[in-house]
Specification:
Helix content: 10-25%
Number of strands: 0
Largest sheet: none
Order of helices and strands: H
């Protein structure tokens, strides 16, 4: 599932593939089975070098797309989307 919006991917995950829902890159550490926040370099595998941008596409050989989802992050993103929509709508309403 996409780390950002929670939509499952229906295709093979390639480096250039974007989520069909939110248009975020899918081949990122945050979508990897081995991503572990408190591990060395945030990965449960012994990776040769640190990946600093966990939400950007990379070429890691260990990447395995996961079906887990970070509910807290998804809720935070949904709240931000709702706030942005509400602020946009306020621009055109005289409230």
């Amino acid at each position: 599932m996409c780390y950002y919006c929670g939509k499952p991917a229906d295709e093979v995950i390639t480096r250039s593939l974007l989520c069909s829902s939110c248009r975020k890159e899918l081949r990122v550490c945050l979508n990897c089975k081995f991503y572990k926040k408190d591990a060395y370099w945030d990965c449960s595998k012994d990776i040769p070098e640190q990946v600093t941008d966990k939400d950007r596409a990379n070429f890691c050989d260990f990447f395995v797309y996961t079906v887990k989802i970070d509910k807290e992050k998804q809720e935070k993103n949904q709240k931000a989307k709702n706030e942005a929509r509400d602020n946009f709508l306020k621009l055109f309403n005289n409230e």
